[in-house]
Amino acid sequence: MAVEGNQTQVRPRSFVGTAPGKVILFGEHAVVYGQPAIAVPVTDVQARATVTPLTGTDGIWLLAADLPGFTDDSMGRRYRLDDAESDDPLRVAVELALAAFGGDTVRWHGGTEPRLLITINSTIPIARGLGSGAAVATAVVRAIAGHLGQSPSPEEVSRLVYEVEKLHHGTPSGIDNTVVAYERPVYFVRGEGVTQLHAGSPFGLIIADTGKASSTRRVVGHVRSRWKADPDRHQWLFDQIGDVARQARTAIEEGDRHAIGRLMAQNHHLLVALGVSSPDLDTLVGVALEAGATGAKMSGAGWGGNIVALVEPRVTSDVADALSDAGATRIISTTVG
Ligand code: PMV
Questions:
Q1: Residue 242 and which of 49, 105, 119, 211 are 20 to 30 A apart at CA?
Q2: From the CB of residue 314, how many other CB atoms can be counted at a distance below 10 Å?
Q3: Per-residue pLDDT of the chain (337 residues; tens, 9 = 90+)
Q4: Interatomic CA distance for residues 13 and 108, integer angstroms
């Protein structure tokens, strides 16, 4: 931003914000009930938002250019912010960012109202537990902040994106916006500060997609109604998952890959008992283990989406091939640490 006299003016320049995907390694669902969870960013997939000043057209326009699973139209969906529903997540992300970073008070290059095109691209599959919603919102918030000459901290970005996450999830724990905004492995407890996690030694992951979309809001709602119907059993399951996540933190910090793998298996069984896995997820977990993975579990809300497997380099391609043969629609291979 340039300052002219007493007035701050937005420079007419484009700005790009990006954000990675994420995968939850331990603690999904139980994290909503106060237990710890561990998640890592997945930089192999990314969301990207580009803010471009417009001349001659009023208002803010959104172009969802390339969101996998969001639109079949390669030309994308282009709409005016004011015409979107008031709870449209992209609209809310833009409005929150403009309010947080001074968009209401600056003098825009075209006058008093912003004239912007915000183009969104993402390689993160939607509704597969890879943090697409949080990543798109993070990219939008960063692009608008950058356009307004601000560089917000991860904490600030995470706080804004949490508000958008509420539209996707209903009662989000906050783990998605946290890991995506910090872009670091995190040990997360709802309502507490973020602990960044340092892996004692790097480890490889394979993320394999069942090809089935799943609504986090629906699965989280299902768990909530089961918990209300049988609080003792569910509290016990949440406590067990929390114990696994606490042990996993130590195993990751110590670089004990066998312990990490064993704990992933335990976590998967507890999620099966919670009723959030599916035959497809169970099949891919079994296939990964049979092909030599050190550990495997479903990841995210469940009933679809992805599994995550811990792999040593010598078995990575065997596990990836076996998962493809078993019907996984997409394989991502990544390293933590
Ligand atoms: O959005 P997903 O599929 O990664 O699920 C989020 C993880 C949950 O624990 C199920 C919900 C939450 O808000 O933490």
A1: 211
A2: 8
A3: 444 444 456 666 789 999 999 999 999 999 999 999 999 999 999 999 999 988 777 889 999 876 554 444 444 678 899 888 898 889 999 999 999 998 877 766 656 678 899 999 999 988 888 999 999 999 999 999 999 999 999 999 999 999 999 987 778 999 999 999 999 999 999 999 789 999 999 999 999 999 999 999 999 999 999 999 999 999 999 999 999 999 999 999 999 999 999 999 999 999 999 999 999 999 999 999 999 999 999 999 999 999 999 999 999 999 999 999 999 999 999 999 8
A4: 11
Cα-to-centroid distance, 215 and ligand 1 (Å): 10
* Distance from the alpha carbon of residue 150 to the mean position of ligand 1, in angstroms: 30
Distances in whole angstroms, Cα of residue 117 to Cα of each of 58, 62, 78, 103, 228: 10, 6, 9, 15, 45
176, 209, 256, 280: the active-site residue: 176
Q: pTM above the 0.85 mark? A: yes
176: annotated active-site residue = yes
Q: Does the beta carbon of 299 sit less than 6 angstroms from any atom of ligand 1?
A: no
Amino acid present at 266: Q
Q: Is 27 in the pocket of ligand 1 (CB under 6 A)?
A: no
The reply to whether ligand 1 has any atom less than 6 angstroms from the CB of 301 is: yes
The alpha carbon of 301 and the centre of ligand 1 are apart by a number of angstroms equal to 5
